[in-house]
Amino acid sequence: xxxxxxxxxxxxxxxxxxxxxxxxxxxxPPPKSVVIPTVMHIGAPAKPIVKAGxxxxxxxxxxxxxxxxxxPIHASVSGVVKKVEEITLSNGRNAPAIIIESDGEMTVYExxxxxxxxxxxxxxxxxxxxxxxxxxxxxxPTSVKLAIKDIEQAEYFVxxxxxxxxxxxxxxxxxxxxxxxIERGVxxxxxxxxxxxxxxxxxxxxxxxxxxxxQVFADxxxxxxxxxxxxxxxxxxxxxxxxxxxxxxxxxxxPLDVGVVIMNVTTLANIERYxxxxxxxxxxxxxxxxxxxxxxxxxxxxxxxxxxDVFEFCGGFKSAPAKVLYGGPMMGTAVPSLEAPIxxxxxxxxAFDEHDAAYKEAxxxxxxxxxxxxxxxxxxPPAIAKAYNSGNMEALVKQKVNLCMxxxxxxxxxxxxxPIVQRHKLAKAALRDWQNSQKGxxx
Amino acid sequence: xxxxDPKLIVSVSPHISSGRTTRGIMLDVIIALLPALAAGAVIFxxxxxxxxxxxxxxCVAGETLFNLITKRPHTVGDLSAVxxxxxxxxxxxxxxxxxxxxxxxxxxxxxxKCLFGGLGKNFANPxxxxxxxxxxxxxxxxASTAPIKIAADAVASPTPLAxxxxxxxxxxxxxDMLLGLRxxxxxxxxxxxxxxGGVYLIIRKVITxxxxxxxxxxxxxxxxAIYGSAGAALVQVLSGGLLLGAIFMATDYVTTPTSNLGKCxxxxxxxxxxVIIRKFGSYPEGVSFSILLMNLFTNYIDKATKRKPLGGxxx
Lengths: 443, 315
Hints:
The complex is a heterodimer. By secondary structure, chain A is α/β, with parallel strands linked by helices.
């Protein structure tokens, strides 16, 4: 790609800490019970169809999709439904969760059936039924991405294997351990999408994954495995689309609007597994790491397993955990309790000791420009701060705060430890409220 | 399932940082200035150290007092007041009296920095502003360039810039100018020491090359065009406070543009103004004036050089 000196996207060099990259995934035995929230995706909550006392088996539907942008949920262990109760999720919202007491047998549901696929619509329907959502972190229902009216629209199929967050190696392991699923999945979906080219973007700090997939797709020149610079946030959707296809997703538009269908590599592998076996999304490979964890490793766990149980399986803590995250240290969500369950889109759980979790007091902005010069979206955090602090909503619109993907590159490089991401989240929420009130005023 | 649930910290991402701090950056600037300070002490005598010590002490004490009186949290721990005092001290002649130094330092730290809201809020570079103020208020004390002690054949001389403007005396050899054996402020003459500090700051990624290279490059090329020879242009580059200003003052985060393109525009303006003032002004030196004047444009340069957000559409 010929790109000018000033057109390349910025980012930051984060520490890799891929300690578990060479560790084969270990399957965790079923825990005593699992907590499966009905909200593990973007969109409407799923509707529970089981009640206390029901016997369920692995893969059995326990909550159906709550709308077009939603996803069904399946039992991840076999056993008895203990109760359906409201729990508080780590984002502060309440949602019903289905609690299943495991019988330890992991009996597979008898009614599992392989989907029959003859068209793109069939494929989208199958993915909808599988309960698969964006497993790279966002949790956007994957079937919605494939609800394409005009097949000509999909010019590029981009597979996201960048895995740019520190620590996380679950995608890396998927690429190494399930390259066969990825191979058949890419070819199968391409058959229906008919893209001009398929790009598989992987950061170059995963040479084994790059080599493996290059070898797998050596025969097809339209499937391009691209080793990308290890520059965070390489795996950001818009960043990866730009760095593979050269296309820019405009504000307020979706990748498909610029001819791109993009999917995380683990999402793809799970889709293929469902198509081949009929087993919906009930298990996740998560990287367990962080300074407080005794034995960091990759673990395959039933969805709904409490974090405490997973850490215990990994030898427990070597020092008291002070902060526990869903996901990586750049964008991960801090959880308030070890009772929190593994969700569909959980790709890592990290536990940090007191030293690593230490809160850094913010000092005045120096105007050093690090945030400006490292923002992959080319935003201006000091200008956004000025607009937000003065309540100037028009200025917030002008500064394009809604383009911020909250990757945290700005806050990572800020020597003053300014809470930039937090401010952008608040600014977006304030802007949303303001825009809603504007609309309300007009109506 | 009963298990011990530890108290966990919940905060917004990111949960790691680059490890860089304001204090760390200031410490790097101090380290980068030490060679120039040492050179000043050797070239102009130990009185140099006294002058710098006074300016640092007054800046630190001034900021502490200001914070006490206005009931603000203490900020001297970020070392920015030390940097201000150090840079201002290096901008003064070794022969200056202690009293003007105290006044100048108070002006820099109280009037220019604290009254505008402290670190990050001041629009003008405190050291540049104080140097200009002192040049106007204490013209004699500031103008009298100290004699060079160690160069036996060097007589007490006006600065090379003054010579080029018609004052009596000889322009020193280039090697002497690189070593700093010339008249001038105590920390501005030793080119080697200043360049060393600049390289250190660039390696440590405290500053980028843009400002010093464009600032110095502009002065060099424009002087070449005006004076007709590369040699004369080189004398211009090695004279006055250009290196100190271009490496340490025009790169001040607070008072200069944030983007690299903006830094280039800022530095270009500084270079142009420096040459114009040196050539046509009544003062021989123009670096501090040019930085101070360009500080006024920082906001506009920032706005004009703003990058278009990726995928941003006009509202």
